[in-house]
């Protein structure tokens, strides 16, 4: 079977959408509201994890209370919304998406970014026609995407999880792929350091072009 039978499931934030500067800015603005010290990009990439309250546990030395989590989550999303409009697609993403589609490949997006915010963003970049489906988070924020990945692939119908490769920037993307019977490739340009990504035991790449190439080979 041709490698173009491979289906790609793209993550959005930190993968197709290069928003790490907005994420760090929003994180530090939210931290300031609750009296926490700012964090560097390097430290963020070393500590960030899903579910997100575990990230705060590593920073605070304890798990945040439910009330604290709600305050920090609301503050982050408010500051992120103020900043993400200045962000764009990762370099070369639009060309890769068009090339994969034109070669007969299929692809979709599954993100833990809010669904109602995700759809207009994707449309605004003019890339929606490249995808069979675009799904964002419809429930509470901060959790993993394993069950959402299963539902996403099921909704696609004809897509075989065994010939599906998830491309993301976080260990949770690999966990979700494994849970759904798919493979994964992880990209270093987003939320995790290379050392953190190694824990997932899947291929790690520095560009999305490499990700697409490796994905095609994985499921070929």
Would you mind describing this structure in some detail?
- Its EC number is 3.-.-.-.
- Keywords: Hydrolase.
- It comes from Streptomyces catenulae.
- This is HAD family hydrolase.
- This protein is of the alpha/beta class and 220 residues long.
- It has ten helices and eight strands.
- The mean pLDDT is 93.
Keywords:
two-stranded antiparallel ribbon; 220 residues; globular
Summarize the structure.
This protein is an alpha/beta fold. Helix content is 47%, strand content 15%.
Layout: helices, strands, pairs:
Elements: E1 7-10, E2 17-18, H1 20-33, H2 41-47, H3 52-60, H4 66-83, E3 88-89, H5 93-102, E4 106-114, H6 115-124, E5 134-137, H7 146-156, E6 164-168, H8 171-179, E7 183-187, H9 194-198, E8 204-205, H10 208-218
Parallel strand pairs: 1-4, 1-6, 4-5, 6-7, 7-8
Antiparallel strand pairs: 2-3
Helix pairs in contact: 1-4, 7-8
Count of DSSP strands: 8
Global morphology = globular
Strand-residue proportion: 15-25%
**Biggest sheet, strands in spatial order?**
5-4-1-6-7-8
Low-confidence stretches: none
Largest sheet: 6 strands, parallel
Average pLDDT level: 93
Count, helices: 10
Q: Order of SSEs, N→C?
A: EEHHHHEHEHEHEHEHEH
Distance between the termini: 7 Å
Structural class: alpha/beta
